[in-house]
User: Which sequence fits this backbone?
């Protein structure tokens, strides 16, 4: 059972409930630009499925079939309990290495870039996790965990993690000793010197207590969310690839082959020229930190929100629904990513009338092509969407100040 697919509607309801509660108590933890960016990132996570990249599944299946020591009895409740706990241990190891080594951080960093902390942050997921994450779970198949059990437990584990991404729930007494909670996960998302790189557990906080990576949230030290090397953009493209680009630049510019080969596997904070295993991280000054929050008007925010709704509906009902051929899915995904890029450019305060016009022209051409393929319903939706945008664009151009170009 895939709990994530079942839980998505409840996630969105909880998100709106948290937003309403924040306004009610006058402690809103949402910004529309940051939230749209996070939700766009969540939409991109399904890209590996859309593109048909099933390498991890093939490897796990081969290990389960040919190399497992035995096969767990999925009919026993004790087997499920054991599997649930042992999966969380391997999740802890994966999560910890995702912070400690550059090549894994390159993928995981996307989840930590939000400078707010709310339930939308939980939905902010990497779009490149399928590259290497699967390696950490091979031992589970060696010890005989069936694939269907792995899917159920892994998605249940991730579903649990959703509710801990909130600032509105205080410490929970004895529960804090054994389980991941909003309080100890707030620590995990903070960039303060006291908190950084702590509390990696998914469901159980006991792994952090056992292996020395636990840190309690302190009343005297407010959490400052985000990453040290802030990317200063809401673009999902840069969010997913900026660390990969950093590694590529290091490999290119490193003076020795040793540094070139070591860079992808180095500790986060390492730079070419430093001895292997060492890092250089500057002290964090919370007073000097400022959030990326460009000044844009309400009309632009509304336009961006409408684009988000359209992209989300399209992704859920057409891309995820498997209504397209492989080639059409790749094309559609490219258009979705391009739309996301344009929307986040608006949110970053850039005036992109020419780029937005180009996007709409491309959509018109695709709409006409779809119409020729006798897909009248889809073509009507697409051309209708473009028509509404074309009406809206001149108003947007006049209302948006030209302080950026």
Assistant:
């Amino acid at each position: 059972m895939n709990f994530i697919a079942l839980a998505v509607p409840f996630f969105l309801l909880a998100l709106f409930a948290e937003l309403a509660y924040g306004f009610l108590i006058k402690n809103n933890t949402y910004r529309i630009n940051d939230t749209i960016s996070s939700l766009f990132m969540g939409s991109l996570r399904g890209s590996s499925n859309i593109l048909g990249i099933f390498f991890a599944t093939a490897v796990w299946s081969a290990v389960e079939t040919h190399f497992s020591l035995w096969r767990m009895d999925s009919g026993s409740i004790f087997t499920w309990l054991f599997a649930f706990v042992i999966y969380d241990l391997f999740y802890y190891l994966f999560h910890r290495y995702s912070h400690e080594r550059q090549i894994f951080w390159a993928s995981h960093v996307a989840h930590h870039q939000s400078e707010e902390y709310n339930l939308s942050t939980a939905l902010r997921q990497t779009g490149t996790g399928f590259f290497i994450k699967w390696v950490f779970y091979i031992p589970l198949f060696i010890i005989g965990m069936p694939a269907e059990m792995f899917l159920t437990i892994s998605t249940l584990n991730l579903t649990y993690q959703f509710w801990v991404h909130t600032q509105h729930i205080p410490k929970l007494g004895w529960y804090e000793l054994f389980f991941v909670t909003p309080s100890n996960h707030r620590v995990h998302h903070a960039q303060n010197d006291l908190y950084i790189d702590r509390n990696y557990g998914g469901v159980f906080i006991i792994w952090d207590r056992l292996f020395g990576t636990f840190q309690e949230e302190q009343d005297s030290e407010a959490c400052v969310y985000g990453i040290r090397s802030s990317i200063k953009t809401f673009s999902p493209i840069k969010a997913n690839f900026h660390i990969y680009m950093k590694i590529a630049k290091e490999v290119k510019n490193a003076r020795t082959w040793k540094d070139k080969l070591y860079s992808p596997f180095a500790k986060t904070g390492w730079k070419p020229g430093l001895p292997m295993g060492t890092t250089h991280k500057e002290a964090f000054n919370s007073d000097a930190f400022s959030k990326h929050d460009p000044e844009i008007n309400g009309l632009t925010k509304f336009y961006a929100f409408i684009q988000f709704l359209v992209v989300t509906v399209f992704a859920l009902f057409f891309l995820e629904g498997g209504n397209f051929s492989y080639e059409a899915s790749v094309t559609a995904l490219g258009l979705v990513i391009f739309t996301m890029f344009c929307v986040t450019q608006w949110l970053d305060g850039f005036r992109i009338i020419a780029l937005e016009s180009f996007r709409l022209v491309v959509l018109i051409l695709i709409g006409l092509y779809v119409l020729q393929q006798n897909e009248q319903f889809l073509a009507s939706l697409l051309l209708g969407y473009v028509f509404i945008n074309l009406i809206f664009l001149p108003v947007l151009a006049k209302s948006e100040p030209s302080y950026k170009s």
Q: What stands out?
A: The longest helix spans residues 77-100. Residues 3-211 form one domain.
